[in-house]
Design a protein that fits this description.
binds pyridoxal-5'-phosphate; alpha/beta; single chain; three-stranded antiparallel β-sheet
């Protein structure tokens, strides 16, 4: 049994240099402006919009509140088509708006909503589609938009995994009506806790900026029951520093992915996924699929065997959102409706993936899988 110091975790936060962070903190202390659209908040919004190649972006205090706010801003009601194969916050955002989630199965090769199965789930109550770019692998955004246009539906992308992901040089974050990001500590780019919404025009940004500040338009006008989801100056400053090193971190992650692929490609019953042609990957996750019959161990056996050696992967996403008590009773939550999602949730394992993994770590991880 490995001791705690020997533990290899699934993820590790990208941290700014402490001296540089202290220098920015000194600026905040001197200005005494610690939150409410301060200079670092404004700077980070500008720098992120540039880095991500998006026209407008609004910072949030986490990645869940922009989902909730996006639905509110577009006045989405009734039913929304979404994926069961995601982090639970995706569906929770619907619940918080009194919307009924309708789960549609995923494509087993992309882990994303299968566009071919969306139309059959549309009813007169359907108002929007909420897909997820799972593991940062882009959804079929053209096929989804075509369906949305045909039926007059809005599209809100949960792009929590898709920081910096581009298709042929264009950001995936401009697909649909709105996209949301998470800057949680476990993500490729973090502001400790944090998030953002990406929108197409200045008017929408103004409205979103108001909704994340209780709905305040000016000192005496509140236009809607907004929420408080403003990012403070301390985390904005931290975010500015992390943005300068995120490319280096993604480069390090890429090397990890290449090492995994090379080492695991020939193992019977273990499936790895290649980069997609034309896509700028962010290497946010490294999922493998375990075929128990061919590999000789089930996913769960491998997962727990690895833990005994101090290697902590993550069964991500397991269970499916549709399997949690809140959503289990829905007509769309059945195994018959979601065969691919059910199969993948039982066989997927996300291997440790972060910028700080060493060659020694990788050898240890790989040998636990080879055993
Ligand atoms: C992380 C994540 C969220 C939630 O983000 P928080 O910043 O933790 O609130 C939402 N959706 C997906 C797919 C995520 O991975």
């Amino acid at each position: 049994m490995a001791n705690d110091n020997n533990k290899i975790t699934v993820t590790s936060p990208l941290l700014p240099d402490l001296d540089e962070f202290n220098a920015l903190l000194k600026e905040i202390w001197d200005s005494k402006w610690i939150t409410n659209n301060g200079q670092f908040h404004q700077r980070l919004e500008k720098e992120l919009a540039e880095y991500l190649k998006v026209p407008y972006l609004s910072l949030f205090t986490n990645g869940t509140l922009p989902l909730i706010t996006a639905l509110q801003a577009l006045r989405i009601t009734g039913e929304v088509i979404t994926t069961p194969y995601s982090f639970v916050a995706t569906t929770h955002s619907l619940w918080w708006n009194g919307i009924k989630p309708v789960f549609v199965d995923i494509d087993p090769d992309t882990f994303n909503l299968d566009p071919a199965k969306i139309e059959a789930a549309i009813t007169p109550k359907t108002t929007a589609i909420m897909p997820v770019h799972c593991y940062g692998r882009p959804c079929d955004i053209n096929a989804i938009q075509e369906i949305a246009d045909k039926y007059g539906l809005k599209v809100i992308y949960d792009a929590a995994h898709a920081f910096g992901v581009e298709i042929n040089g264009e950001s995936v974050l401009t697909a649909g009506d709105l996209s949301t990001l998470s800057f949680h500590a476990t993500k490729v780019y973090n502001t400790v806790e944090g998030g953002a919404m990406v929108m197409h025009d200045a008017k929408t940004k103004e409205r979103i900026d108001q909704l994340k500040n209780f709905g305040y338009v000016d000192e005496t006008t509140v236009m809607a029951p907004g929420i408080n989801s403003k990012m403070d100056e301390i985390r904005a400053a931290y975010g500015i520093l992390n943005l300068r090193q995120v490319d280096k971190a993604i480069e390090a992650r890429k090397k990890v992915a290449e090492r995994y692929r090379e080492a695991l490609a020939d193992i019977e019953g273990i499936k790895v996924f290649d980069d997609i042609q034309g896509v700028r990957n962010n290497y946010s996750y490294f999922p493998i699929l375990v075929n128990a019959e061919k590999y000789g161990r089930s996913r769960n056996e491998l997962y727990f065997d690895m833990q005994k050696e101090g290697v902590f992967g993550r069964r991500y996403f397991y269970p499916l959102i549709s399997d949690f008590s809140t959503y289990k009773g829905l007509a769309s939550s059945t195994k018959e409706n979601l065969p691919n999602a059910y199969r993948i949730t039982e066989s997927v394992l996300c291997l440790p993936m972060h910028h700080a993994l060493t060659e020694k770590d990788l050898e240890r991880i790989i040998s636990t899988i080879r055993k």
